[in-house]
Amino acid sequence: MTTRTPTASTRFLTRLSTLVLVAAIAFGGFGLVGAVFGFGLSGHDVGVHTEVPGSRLSGLPKGAMPPDNVDVIVRVRHASAGQIRLLAARDLAPGLVLIAAIWLLRGLLVSVREGDPFNEHNVNRLRTLAVVVLAGVPLAAFVSSVFAGELADSAGLKGAGTHVPFPGNAVVGGLALFVLAEVFAAGVRLRADLDGTV
Amino acid sequence: MVALSEYGVAVHLDELLEARGMTLAQLAEEADITVVNLSVLKNGRAKAVRFSTLAALCRALDCQPGDLLSWTPPRK
Fold first, then answer.
1. Which of A189, A190, A191, A198 to mutate to probe the B interface, most B CBs <10 Å?
2. Cα–Cα distance between A185 and A193 in angstroms, integer?
3. How much is the pTM?
4. Which one of A88, A166, A175, B29 is separated from B48 by 20 to 30 angstroms, measured CA to CA?
5. Å from B20 to nearest chain A CA?
């Protein structure tokens, strides 16, 4: 094993990932505690995502074609405890995916900082990260969309609907991570051969 | 006792050193190979040997590669 002084960017990224991880866990914990006791991150105000028909837009320039639906956020003041719980539930799944992804990335960065990134642990980390991106991101988007729909319904915004766009970015990102994991696995095998060469 | 590698290859360093009255440290200095690498070879933990290493050992021990290495079919 060769141990070299980590580069400044490696040290910076490791610290940044630690900071983001701690912040994500803190916000997630605060959100969960708030959901139990009936207060959100912004007090009792809740931003509800919903859609309105494009035909209701006014003041567009002459000749402009509005889309079928437009995403809007409706601010609900003095939200009920149930609505705040729905808000927490909406943000829980994407939050968990974010924490898992940063946790795995931080593990990779720590191994780079320690000068030994080509090992089996990192192959498993990259494969897990690929699954998180490929399956976790669309699943979290779907779960979040279901709770967002419930929240919109609870605010009287009927017809908000549940829709999850095709997760093209997650598919490409997840496949790229799987490829990277296999490249790492080949690197680990080459390194084992090199270590046994006299 | 000669240690066999996982591929059934044995390195007869001990016998050659004894026959020539040399120590591992002397061989390391003579062949310009680290004692750690010689130990890896001697204990059957090597997976590959470079031609340069083989040539340096043959020069230092005044022997042929066949004197250094032998192969025994691994037991199933």
1. A198
2. 13
3. 0.71
4. B29
5. 22
